[in-house]
Design brief:
Number of domains: 1
Helix content: 40-55%
CATH topology: Amidase signature (AS) enzymes
Number of helices: 18
Strand content: 5-15%
CATH class: Alpha Beta
Structural class: alpha/beta
Radius of gyration: 20 Å
CATH architecture: Alpha-Beta Complex
Shape: globular
CATH superfamily: Amidase signature (AS) domain
Strand order of the largest sheet: 1-3-2-6-8-7-12-13-11-9-10
Number of strands: 13
Length: about 425
């Protein structure tokens, strides 16, 4: 489905204001008709009744900026009275049913958005492929047999399929950025420790962030304006593009052309400094996140070992191969990388990087090598704790990749400036 044929925020707002029950029926019709039964099971973790969804539309303040916009919620965030599974089969057995909505849900409701359901994910958000042995692998809505990317796989799928114009995800090491690139979506990740991620079920808190997807640039602009605010500037922002990582030739060419709409390539000195500084980012990311992920799971990991996705268990179990010396060895490069970002933003307002090394992967391409190629691109911003706007970039094959626009603050005036160029 072309992004131009998707219902926009304003389309849904008009539909919901005219007939809340009709809007609810239309959304649920789309779930039933745009997904096969297997993909519905892989994507949708929970769906409200028609009456519940209609009530969500009706109860919004008529003046709220997102009034009548339906959204899906990644099943790491809580809805009061519903179990949160996190892509697993057992999380509610070790974690009580939440009594309160997550902070981001409360903020979305204040802004007028209507929760239309919850989405599945790569188990415990610990993976980039969207594969899940419990519920099924999330497939690209337009290219069956190829992945949406993960871990916010279900959230990307509902937007790319045209179910809703808006969905909430999380991004630790690329879990919004990669699905956005693969599915041709706009994506946004906030910063670690933000209140909207603090009460979600964690993967690795030092890098975990909340984020969201839209299919349209104008909708992303509306969402960011409503939820985080947008800064203004009297001058044109200054940025540069860094062609970095092991990119497929078509991706390198497409990203080079797309980035030219925003900025020039990094000059020689800047390119050398950034390339050298980013070279160990994935290693630093792993050294940070492996202990934190184990800390989250350690009290029940052995007891529930047989109920984990084997690939997720293997990632958790890396804690036993990570030595204290290896953890300490990244302290200096971690400090150096964060200082590099500080220095960069003294001169520039944004950096543009490729978001994915290729188009959406087939099942056999969901390999450790491709995961590593992707982390090389996404880890610099993750380790830097920086917000990122993801932009879709079409490929000649019909697939898509993406650009990361990395800024130093969620309210950066770069964000509206960039989105205006993508309208």
């Amino acid at each position: 489905m072309s992004p131009r044929s998707l219902l926009s925020f304003s389309d849904w707002q008009q539909l919901a204001s005219h007939d809340a029950h009709g809007a609810a029926r239309e959304l649920q019709r789309r779930v039933d008709t745009l997904f096969s039964p297997a993909q519905r099971r892989a994507v949708v973790a929970w769906l409200p009744t028609e009456d519940m969804l209609a009530e969500n539309f009706v109860r919004a303040d008529p003046q709220a900026p997102l009034r009548g916009v339906p959204y899906f919620l990644k099943d790491l965030f809580d809805l009061a009275g519903l179990p949160t599974f996190g892509g697993s089969t057992f999380l509610p057995e070790v974690r009580p049913t939440p009594a309160h909505d997550s902070a981001i849900v409360q903020a979305l409701h204040r802004a007028g958005a209507a929760c239309a359901g919850k989405t599945h994910l790569h188990e415990f958000a610990y993976g980039l492929t969207g594969e899940n042995p419990h519920y099924g692998d999330c497939e690209h809505p337009r290219f069956p047999g190829r992945t949406t990317g993960g871990s916010s796989s279900g959230s990307a799928a509902v937007v790319a399929a045209g179910i809703t114009p808006f969905a909430i995800g999380t991004d630790t090491g690329g879990s919004v950025r990669l699905p956005a690139a693969f599915c041709g979506l706009f994506g946004f990740r906030l910063t670690p420790k933000h209140p909207w991620i603090a009460d979600a079920f964690p993967l690795a808190p030092s890098c975990d962030t909340a984020g969201w997807f839209t299919a349209r640039a104008d909708d992303m602009l509306t969402a960011n304006r409503a939820l985080v605010g947008l800064g203004t500037t009297d001058r044109e922002p200054r940025g540069c593009y860094l062609e970095f990582g092991q990119l497929e030739p078509d991706v390198a060419e497409a990203c080079r052309a797309a980035s030219a709409r925003l900025c020039a390539p990094a000059e020689t000195t800047t390119r050398g400094q950034l390339t050298a500084g980013f070279s160990r980012a994935a290693e630093i990311y792993n050294a940070l996140t492996i202990p934190e992920a184990w800390q989250v799971h350690h009290t029940w990991a052995e007891r529930y070992r047989d109920r984990y996705d084997p690939a997720v268990w293997q990632r958790l179990n890396r804690i036993h191969q990570l030595t204290g010396a290896e953890r300490e060895a990244v302290d200096v490069p971690l400090t150096a990388l964060r200082l590099l970002w500080t220095s960069f933003f003294l001169t520039f307002d944004f950096l543009v990087l490729p978001a994915a090394p290729s188009g959406a992967w087939t099942k056999v391409e969901c390999t450790l090598a491709n995961r590593s190629r992707t982390l090389a691109l996404t880890a610099p911003a993750s380790v830097g704790g920086l917000p990122v706007l993801s932009l879709p970039v079409p490929l000649p094959s019909g697939l898509s990749t993406g650009l990361q626009v990395i800024v130093n603050h969620p309210q950066s005036p770069v964000i509206p400036w960039v989105l205006q160029r993508w309208l």
